[in-house]
Amino acid sequence: FLHTEPVQILDILCLLLWCVLSPVVVVNVDGSLVQHPLTCLGSFNREEEGWRRDNDWIIWMMDEEEKKKGNSFLVNLEERTGGGIFTCHSLDKTLLKNTTVLVKHLDEEKRILEGSTRTGIQDVCFMKCSTRNYQGEFHCSWKFTPTRFGTVMFVKVARGLSDAENISCSVDASGQQWTCSSSSGQSDIMCSVNSSGLGVSCVDRQYCPYAEETDRITLTIYMRTNYLLEEYSKCFYISEIVKPDNLSIKKVNSSTIEWSYPVSWNRPISYFPLSFQVKEIEGRKCKNGCTCDSPYTEVRTTVHTTESSQWSVKAKVTVCVRAQDALCDSPWSDWTEYRSVPHSLVYCIQQNLSSRTPSCSM
Ligand SMILES: *[C@@H]1O[C@H](CO)[C@@H](O)[C@H](O)[C@H]1NC(C)=O
Ligand SMILES: *[C@@H]1O[C@H](CO)[C@@H](O)[C@H](O)[C@H]1NC(C)=O
Ligand SMILES: *[C@@H]1O[C@H](CO)[C@@H](O)[C@H](O)[C@H]1NC(C)=O
Ligand SMILES: *[C@@H]1O[C@H](CO)[C@@H](O)[C@H](O)[C@H]1NC(C)=O
Ligand SMILES: *[C@@H]1O[C@H](CO)[C@@H](O)[C@H](O)[C@H]1NC(C)=O
Ligand SMILES: *[C@@H]1O[C@H](CO)[C@@H](O)[C@H](O)[C@H]1NC(C)=O
């Protein structure tokens, strides 16, 4: 059960400058005891080998505690424990090498992010991804479990590439902005981990709004807490996650409203049509104030239309309107609410405007 094969991400982590003196080693653990060998100094040249054979002058330490003498050290990992920072020193305590060992459990159980693993390849419920339009941008967010807070160690993102193909990812000096591109140039996506650490904002720089997407985007986040590393991925088309922004509703006259396409939505709208849903909640059904999300069954009208954006409003009715891409079964926008005021009150407001005399009695 000796695992000597580090996971793929090690190579990519090694792009980071500190790799040589301070390597990060990720060891896969499957539940049984895994022993991972570390060496302090690389291969000795033959002449030196004789006097260095015992290597008694190398001291291994973990957490300030001396563990062993010699050039090699065997780290014991079991379940999710055993990871840490292992340093080796010469007798005068000079630091020779500083290795961080992270444990990655191969089971499906996740500990860092809130959610659940569905059977299958995707961690569907750990990350939520969404975009407001077909511009090639998207945002994914997550929540930490109450007892843990993770940091993003590595981001890998590509469209339509199998693992066998070459994707190279690099990170900028801030350590927060990742760029992954394929050697063929067919995938080029940049993601920034946001300052709260609760999401990434990405842009697909090869995206074309007018072409049908032939391949899905796969986003993989390596999340670390202490010395535990977990991998979360999500795979989607932009057209599956597009959720339009709120609509804006304006009043045409006392009995008519009009909504318009969100400013952020793609133009021309003939090429990117939205379908609208309207529901009306009678005022007396929600005396204590109700919102469009309230689970009222007394919905008077629900329509689907891509056509008319005008709607006649009856008095004392709350009108709720939302939108969805008319061509895909992607998420609905949030509701935009319009509360019609009683006609008498509308009359008052109009009077106020025209006469400027505060003569309204309700
Ligand atoms: C080893 O590296 C880790 C992570 O970079 C750092 O926190 C730690 O202080 C280093 N230890 C020594 C002894 O330099
Ligand atoms: C990946 O890159 C390596 C070296 O850059 C190259 O030898 C190999 O052929 C590439 N593999 C693919 C599938 O492109
Ligand atoms: C970071 O992303 C989270 C999740 O989407 C969001 O709630 C938060 O407002 C974002 N923070 C910043 C500073 O953008
Ligand atoms: C309000 O506007 C609509 C559409 O322009 C029109 O059909 C209707 O007659 C108007 N109603 C009033 C009271 O002005
Ligand atoms: C969308 O509208 C809802 C209700 O009208 C409101 O609560 C929400 O903040 C709006 N969202 C945005 C992004 O404007
Ligand atoms: C009409 O105007 C007066 C004073 O400008 C204000 O107090 C009153 O609330 C207004 N009425 C309505 C219905 O807006």
TrEMBL record:
Pfam families: IL12p40_C. Residues 243-343 form the Fibronectin type-III domain. It is found in: Secreted. Keywords: Cytokine, Disulfide bond, Glycoprotein, Immunoglobulin domain, Secreted, Signal. InterPro entries: FN3_dom, FN3_sf, Ig-like_fold, IL-12, IL-12_beta, IL-12_beta_cen-dom. The keyword Membrane does not apply. GO terms for molecular function: cytokine activity; cytokine receptor activity. The keyword Signal applies. GO terms for cellular component: extracellular space. Residues 1-31 form the signal peptide. It comes from the Eukaryota. Heterodimer with IL12A; disulfide-linked. The heterodimer is known as interleukin IL-12. Belongs to the IL-12B family. This is Interleukin-12 subunit beta. It comes from Oncorhynchus mykiss (Rainbow trout).
